[in-house]
C-alpha cells in the first residue's frame, strides 16, 4: 500500500472546497434540475429540514438522520417519463424531490479533517459516496499544490492568526474517532469530499503509486464484469424500471450470435447530467434504447415530441406548451437530449452504426489500458465509469471500471490476491 494514503489526511483534499449548501426534500424537481446543472457533481445531496428548536445543537447522528439520499439526473428523467408526468409536465416539475429521490442515508458519512486518507478510503469502499467534512478555519493542508487550487480557482490562504489553533500535522490522529482541536473547526459549516476528488488527488500522486498506474486494468483485476445492460431493440423505458446504483448506468447493447455484447451507447446519470430533461423523458418513454442513444433526428413524424416552451416570466422554468408565453418552439432531436449525431441520415441502431460519432458515444477503454489512462479519462469527461472492451475487438463489451473498482485496486495490499468484484 502506498505511503501517500498513510501520510495524507482528509483535510489535505478539502482545502478550498466550497461550503455545502443543503438542498431540502421539499424543494421542487424544477429547482433540483437547476441545482444539478450548477453542481460540480452529477447529483445532489437531499436533506430534511434542520430543526428550528431553540437551543438545540445538532450532533453528527442528528445530521446523519437528516440526510435523505443523492438525487441524480437518471432518477429525474425516469420520473418525468411516467405517463402522468408526460401528460402534465408543468405539474411534474413542481413535484417535491422527496417523491423522486431514492432514500439511502448510508451514502454519506461525517469525518474530521484529521482523518487519515487510508481510513477515508476504507469508508468509501463500503459504499459511502461522499464524506461530510467540517470546514476548518485554520487548516492549510500538508500538500501545497492542493491548498492553492480547486476547480481552477486560486485560493488565498487565511492569514496567520495566533488565536486560531491549527491541528498538528506531525502528530495527527490515526482514525476518524479522534477530533482535532475544537477551535480549529467550524461545526456549522461543512464541505463534501467525493470519490472524484479522491481520484483527482491520486492523479497528482502517480509516482507514489508505482507500479500500479502503468499496469493494465486487466492485470490489476479492476474490470467489473457485473454491469447492467439493455438490448438496443428494447423500449428505452425499461431502463427506468430498476435503476442500478453503482454506477447509475445501463450499457445499450446488440447481442452477437455467440452471445457477446456489442456496446452502442449508454443510458446513465453522467450522460444526462446537463441534458434537456423534458426532451430526454419523452425520448425515454417513446423510443427504443438504440434510438435513444443514437440520436434519432427529424423523421419521427408519427411520434413527434409535444411542443415544449420556456416560460418567459418564471425564471426559465420548463413547462408544457399552453398557458405560458412561448419564447421559442422546440422539437425533439438528439441535440435537445444532449447528444450530437454527426450523421443525421443514420437513423437505425442496427445499420451504419460504425459511422456514428457524437456525444452519446460511450466512454470506453480496452482491457489492456493502463490504470492511469482510465483515471484520466474519467476525470477529463467527468464520468463515474468507463466501459471496458475486449483487447482484440473494441466493440465487444467485457465490463466496466468505476470509482469503487479503482479505490479497491489502489488500496489493496501488495501481494494480496485479486478477488472477483461483487455484483451491485
Automatic annotation (TrEMBL):
This protein's GO cellular component annotations are: cytoplasm; nucleus
User: Membrane spanning segments where?
Assistant: none
Q: Which residues form the signal peptide?
A: none
- Coiled-coil zones: none
Q: Enumerate the Pfam families for this protein.
A: CBS
Going by the UniProt record, its keywords in alphabetical order are: CBS domain, Repeat
Highest taxon of the lineage: Eukaryota
Q: Which residues form the CBS domain?
A: 355-418
InterPro entries (alphabetical): AMPK_gamma/SDS23_families, CBS_dom, CBS_dom_sf
What PANTHER family is this protein classified in? AMP-ACTIVATED PROTEIN KINASE, GAMMA REGULATORY SUBUNIT, CBS DOMAIN-CONTAINING PROTEIN CBSX6
What's the protein here called? CBS domain-containing protein
What species does this protein belong to? Lactuca virosa
